[in-house]
Amino acid sequence: MKFEESKVLQHLPKQFFANLVAKVNAKAATGADVINLGQGNPDQPTPDFIVKAMQKATADPADHKYSLFRGMPRLKQAAADFYKREYGVDLDPEKEVAILGGSKIGLVELPFALLNPGDTMLLPDPGYPDYLSGVALAQVKLELMSLSADNHYLPDYQQLDPKVVEQAKLMYLNYPHNPTGAVATPEFYQDTVKFAKAHHIGVVQDFAYGAIGFDGKRPVSFLQTPGAKDVGIETYTLSKSYNMAGWRIGFAVGNADMIEAINLIQDHLFVSVFPAIQDAAIAALNSDQSTVKTLVARYQQRHDDFYAAARKIGWEPYPSGGTFYAWMPVPKGYTSEEFADLLLDKCAVAVAPGTGFGKSGEGFVRIGLLIDEPRFTEACERIGKLGLFK
């Protein structure tokens, strides 16, 4: 017997990163020394104290039972304490915190939880490709907010089609921004709250890279904005801050109605997260954050090293303020994908074409700052030999 996938699954977007990985693996299979700058997977180990907390928890028989459907109250409290300590934001741990098996799950399931088929949601372009999965699965209408360097990769709400704005019920933001590294300002978030209230649009701010800011400037949380909890939520993952990408743990905080919707849909999809992982997450959030500071300093050094190496060959980066990415312009005469293919073919350097993040990513490639010197210099020297930058 043959079983066809449902029409909903047939409309899912193709996995951009799977195609990128396949190209890199094919090049490496030829024996080439590939310098992979296209990845977004944290390369450092999870801090020892978090691993030890997990090891201790896995030996506890109580952690082998079903988890509470909506997560451990102690983890919700740790998330609330973290936001109070780090951002000065007060949260009710029971009503304003939802535990997620990684923030991706929350971001993909939210359209199910808050919208009906045919409703309209706004997404940034360029943006994280997996946002599109939630659009397809929930069968909602997508409208894109084109972002550009001219406006620091922030949406200009005045330029949006008024008809689209009136139809929209949900909007995603992501700062610090993947793929560009742009950061939001308090003034932008104030405008966002006003815009959302005026048009009754729910806001979801993806704060995946919230810990990673450059030049001593810490990224701003959306929830630090007066009125933010009236209009939206923020999602936070432990993947980037604590190198826990494979652990799959995160949380959402903010508007009580939106948090309840997340909890309700997860009641029917999951039995929360393995309790031992939740125990480890509590240890991470309640720590003195010294490992996070060390990690940010490492990314700052990589940022500085790559920028210096790129500038030596005349390749000027976009001035990113956060994340562990660099957003690099494509030379004239090439599309983003053509340039990425050229670098892999001729230089054995892998980068992510900007169009993998949306139409407005054309003209750029994304560089992952997930290796150390001297590989940045070597990669840029290989690229420099092509003579494309002056």
Automatic annotation (TrEMBL):
Q: What would be an example GO MF term here?
A: pyridoxal phosphate binding
Which UniProt key words apply to this protein?
Aminotransferase, Transferase
Q: InterPro entries in the record, alphabetically?
A: Aminotransferase_I/II_large (IPR004839), LL-DAP_aminotransferase (IPR050881), PyrdxlP-dep_Trfase (IPR015424), PyrdxlP-dep_Trfase_major (IPR015421), PyrdxlP-dep_Trfase_small (IPR015422)
Q: Where is the Aminotransferase class I/classII large domain?
A: 33-383
Which cofactor does the UniProt annotation name?
A: pyridoxal 5'-phosphate
Q: Does the keyword Glycoprotein apply?
A: no
Protein name per the record: Aspartate aminotransferase
User: Which organism is the protein's source?
Assistant: Secundilactobacillus silagei JCM 19001
Organism classification: Bacteria, Bacillati, Bacillota, Bacilli, Lactobacillales
Name of the gene encoding the protein in the UniProt record: aspC_3
